[in-house]
C-alpha cells in the first residue's frame, strides 16, 4: 500500500479531509482554516468522501485558482501543496497546513474549527481563548509593570530566601549581592525602565493590606462535613504572595488531613501516615499557584477537603490545546506564567517543568492509591484526590514501604555507588523519603555502607 493509499484508508478525521476535486476548493479552505486553528492537517483532492482515489486533471490554471483561494486566509497561512501522479495522466493534490502559530486564523473573515471529522464556524468562546493565547506570548499579565509598586511593597526577606534556595540547589550562581533590585533583575522580574513586574508582586508582595489592586492574590481553604458543601467544619481566606499562600495551604492540610497512626512491634515508636502522599499534594498546590489565570481578579486558588476527597482548584482554563488526559501523559511544558514558574523551580518547590502531573500520578501509584482526576469546571481547573479509608491507608503504606525498599535494594545491587539523590530521582520520591528507607534497611541488616559518604559504596546483604 502506497503512503497515499495508507493515508486515505484512515478516513476523514480531525486532521484529514477528502475532496473529489478542486471544484470544492472554497469548502476545502474552510477546512484548512479549521486545521490551522487546531492540530494541523491535510486536504486531499482527487478522492471521494468514501475513500475512492479517482484523481483529476491538474493544470497551471488549477494551481493558480487554488493559490488565489488561499489569499482569503487571515493572517496568511502557509500551505504545502504536493502533486502525486496517478495512472491515466491524472493527479491527486495533497494540501497540508500546520497548527498556526498566530491563531485564530479566519477564511474570508470567518474563523473555523475542526471537530472530529466536521468543519464548523468557530464557537465564540473558542475564538476568544485562541485570541488570548496568541496575545499571551507577547503581552502576558505577569510581565506588565505593576504601577505604583516599589521595593517597599515587597517582602525582601522572601526574595532573599528564594535566591539562597536557588544557590543551594544549584539552580543559579550566587549573584554576589543581596540588593533587592539587583536580585529582581537577575530573576527577570523587572520590566521596562526597571519597573517592578506584576510577577514580582505576585511572588513577593507583603501580606494582606499591601496589594489592594490585586484581589486575585488570595487563597480559600475549607473543611466540609461529609461529601457536600452544605456544612463547614473550618473555612478561612487569606491574601498575600504566592509562597506565603502556599505555606498557608500546607498548614491547613497538616491540621485537617486524616492521618493513620501505627505502633511498630519491637520499637518505641509510632509511624504516622498521611492519607495522601505529601509530595503529590504539594505538587498539586504548586501547580495551582503557577498556572492560575492571574489576569482575572475574581476567583482564588482554593483547597476543599471533604470526608472522601481533596480538591485543589486553580482559576483559569487549560490552554495551548492541552486536555486533562494529555496532562497525565508525556507532554510539552507550556506554563501560562513562565516567570512565576521559574521562581517556584528555583525555590525548589517544583523539580522539573512539564512533569508535575506525571510526578503526582507516579507518587499516588507508588503509594497504592488511585491517580487523581483532573477536570475543567466553571472556568477553573480542579484536581481531585480520592481519600482512602483508614484501613486502606495503613495497608497501602505498608505495601508502598515494602515496594520502595525492594526497588532501592535492586538499584543498589546494580549500582552500589548510587547516591540518595539519584535514587530519589529514579523512584520519583523525595531524598528525605529515600533516607528514611535506607535507615530502616540498615537497621534491618539488609544494607551497609562501605567507606565514606563520598567515595564509598553500598553493600546489599543477601
Count of strand segments: 20
Level-2 CATH architecture of the largest domain: 2-Layer Sandwich
What does the overall shape look like? Answer: globular
**What is the averaged pLDDT score?**
86
Distance between the termini: 56 Å
Please name the CATH topology of the largest domain. Answer: Heat Shock Protein 90
Which strand order does the major sheet show? 12-11-15-16-18-17
Question: What brief labels describe this structure?
Answer:
Methyltransferase, Cobalt-precorrin-4 Transmethylase, Domain 2, 4 domains, Heat Shock Protein 90, 20 strands, 462 residues, alpha+beta, single chain, 15 helices
Structural commentary:
- The protein is an alpha+beta fold.
- It folds into four domains: 3-136, Schlafen, AAA domain (Methyltransferase, Cobalt-precorrin-4 Transmethylase, Domain 2, 2-Layer Sandwich), CATH 3.30.950.30; 141-210, no CATH class; 218-388, Heat Shock Protein 90 (2-Layer Sandwich), CATH 3.30.565.60; 392-460, Arc Repressor Mutant, subunit A (Orthogonal Bundle).
- It is 37% helix and 21% strand.
- It is built from 15 helices and 20 strands.
- A six-stranded mixed sheet has the order 12-11-15-16-18-17, covered by helices on one side.
- Strand 4 and strand 5 form a beta hairpin.
- Helix 13 (390-414) crosses helix 15 (431-443).
- The protein is globular and about 80 Å long.
- The N and C termini lie far apart (56 Å).
- 32% of the residues are buried.
